[in-house]
Each structure stands twice: as structure tokens, then as C-alpha cells.
User: What shape does this take?
Amino acid sequence: MACPQANGTPARADFCYKFVTEDLPRVNIIVTAPRTDGTVTQTGLSNLQVEVAHKMLALITKERWQIGDRISDAAIARELHVSRSPVRQVLHLLVERGIVAQAPNRGYLLQRFPKQDELSNEILPPSDFEDLYHRLMSARASGSIGLEVSEAALAEQFEVTRGTVRRTLMRFAAEGLAERLPGYGWRFAEALDNEHAVNESYSFRVVIECGALTQADYSPVLSELQELHREQLEILERPISDFPDGFWFDVNANFHETLVSWANNRFLTQALRWQNHLRRLTESCEFERMGEARIRQACADHLEILQAIEAGDFEFAAALLKRHIARPAHDSV
Assistant: This one.
């Protein structure tokens, strides 16, 4: 489907990205939504609604709201650039799960924070697009798909529609991980598949991450720091066999991106986010093979860095971070 145009001018890519999500296949997730007559109906969540649900859970986990706070469906819809309808459907689901309560004349209120084991795929599975996104990441990292691909070949290999493939590849393109070729072909970004490229990546991270901690405007957000601290402690208490696919990479990437975000410099944050996307594209298989000792060492490093930041010693924190990043490649995270 072509992007809509206004006055003959092609629509922006981000608008087109949202436009093509309006007509999506539905996922057969059965949830119950309360009705005014006391009965319940069964309804499916569309892929768009599933993605909205995951984003809302992330906001709740990051303590956007405290227990008892009102959750505005209109505000969430504006933030996520969707209509209120999918947001309300997700709120109904969270009411059924006991995470959100619906109060007369007050709307939706946060009732409790989701438990750690609810955040994998227990509350709801990934959408078709999220699932294909991670499958393509793993396939590219393992080399089972080449540098250049076609939509038709990927649709056949992964048994999905070409529309699903196209939208997923649009996400890769938005993250700087793929570019569209003439026709229906795509080329993935170059991989960190040799020692020189890997060393360049680590050197880049030292410059960006350690440099962020020494910025004059560096200002940690206490609630985010406490959440990172809690998250690292929880990981230390769990066997790695409990980790779902991609869990440790996501936690690790979020840790480093959050530290850099406190420099309040969007260019530093964007640079590290792109680097993490590139690392995910080429290192996801390696992360899945990480042993417990390496993960625990990384968590110990993270906690030490957080302690220095909390104490206001940003130079020491930067030194600890440099040591953490500069560990030999087979130990670095």
C-alpha cells in the first residue's frame, strides 16, 4: 500500500509507518473485558494493540505512575501516536490482570506493579511484527540469512505475509540497520563480524558512554537509578535458565542507554542507541550463549557503577564504566 500524500507531497516516513498499521491481521489472544451488564465478552487483540500493551507495561514498570494514580487513556494515546481505542482495549486487559483498576468517575487507576515473571510473555505474547523482528535479528546474527534479502524470500522462509516482512524491515531501516534496495530488496547494515570492527565498537562506546558521565549537565534521575539497581539485584537472584530469549541483551542495553540519557544530550543517546541496535543485529546469538559467571560479573560491575553515580562521583563512575566496557571481548557486555 502506498503512503498517503497531501497536496502532492509524499508523506513523512514516520507517518507512513503509522498509517500502514491501521489495517493489520489480528492475533488470537483471548482476554475478558467487563461489560456494564456484569457479563464478559471475549475479544482478540490486534497486533497494534499488542504493541501498545507492551509499551504501556514498560511505562508502568518504569514507575510512570504510582499506586493509586489515574492513568489517562487520552494522554497515553497522544504519547504513543495511536487512537484511544487500542489504549482502552489494553486497559481492559490490565484490569482483568489486576494491574489496573477501573473506578467510577475516576477512570483507570494503577492498582499494582507487574511482577517480574509477568513481564516476559506471560501477560501477552509478542505481536507478529515483534516476533519476526527478533527472529530476523537472530537469523542475521547466526548468518542464516544473507546481507541482501528479498521480501518474498523472507516471507516464504519465515512463513509470514509480505506485509509483515515489509513493516518489520521498515523498523530495521528506522533503526539504521537496513536500507531498501530498488524493487523489493533490502540490505542489512554491515555486521561487527571481525576483530577490527568489534574493537572499533568498544572504542566508540568508551568515548560515548564515559564521555556522557563527565558532561557538565549530567544529572541522574533518582527513580531510574533505583529501578536499575533493583533490576540488577533481581537478576543476581535468578537462575539464568529463567531468562527469556533476548532478556539479558535488553536489560544490558537499557542499563547503558539510561546512564547516557542522564547527560541530557540527545545526540549522545541516539549514538549509543544506534550502536546497541547494531550490536543486537550481530551479537544476539553470543548473548544467548553467555554463561552465568559472565552475567553475574556484569551485574556486579553495573552495581558498582551505580553506587559511584549515586555518591555523585561521576569521574570514578566513568573510570569504572571504562574498565567494564574495555574488558576483553569475550568478557565484555
Remarks:
- The longest strand covers residues 26-34.
- The chain has three domains: 26-117, 128-188, 195-325.
- The beta strands are 5-6, 9-10, 26-34, 40-46, 70-71, 100-103, 107-110, 148-150, 178-180, 185-188.
- Residues 137 and 197 are 18 Å apart (CA to CA).
